[in-house]
Amino acid sequence: MAEEKIEETFVIGNMTCVGCARTLENEFRKFDGIEYRVSLAGKSVTVVYSPADYSRDVFIRAIESHGYRIEGEA
Q1: What is the pLDDT of residue 73?
Q2: With a threshold of 0.85, does the pTM exceed it?
Q3: Distance of CA 74 to the CA centre of its chain
Q4: Residue 59's pLDDT is what?
Q5: For the chain, where are the alpha helices, taking DSSP H only?
Q6: φ and ψ of 66, to 5 deg
Q7: What single-letter DSSP state applies at residue 17?
């Protein structure tokens, strides 16, 4: 049986430059066993993860810890 995965996309209101995207990429590299995409054009971060390993709140806190504001979900 395949492990259940959840995909979440967080819209980041104040991600405005390549440096912002790089900061978030570096943050998400710290999480083992996830897939992620940071999109500067879309001002978003998409995360695919197992709910057995992480909760969405972990990713929200990781984003907000760098001063970014989540404006919604796509």
Answers
A1: 73
A2: yes
A3: 12
A4: 97
A5: 18-28, 56-64
A6: -100, 10
A7: S
For residue 13, give both structure tokens: 């209101």
CA distance 37 to 45: 6
| Residue 22, token pair as written in the block | 């790089």
Contact 18, 56 (CB under 8 A): no
Place of tokens 């995409």: 37
What pLDDT digit, counting tens, does each position of 19-67 carry?
999 999 999 999 999 999 999 999 999 999 999 999 999 999 999 999 9
Which of 38, 12, 13, 5 shows the shortest CA–CA distance to 24? 38
Q: In sequence order, what DSSP letters do the residues of 20-33 get, joined into one string?
A: HHHHHHHHHTTSTT
Domain spans of the chain? 18-42+54-74
Would the pLDDT of 1 be above 80?
no
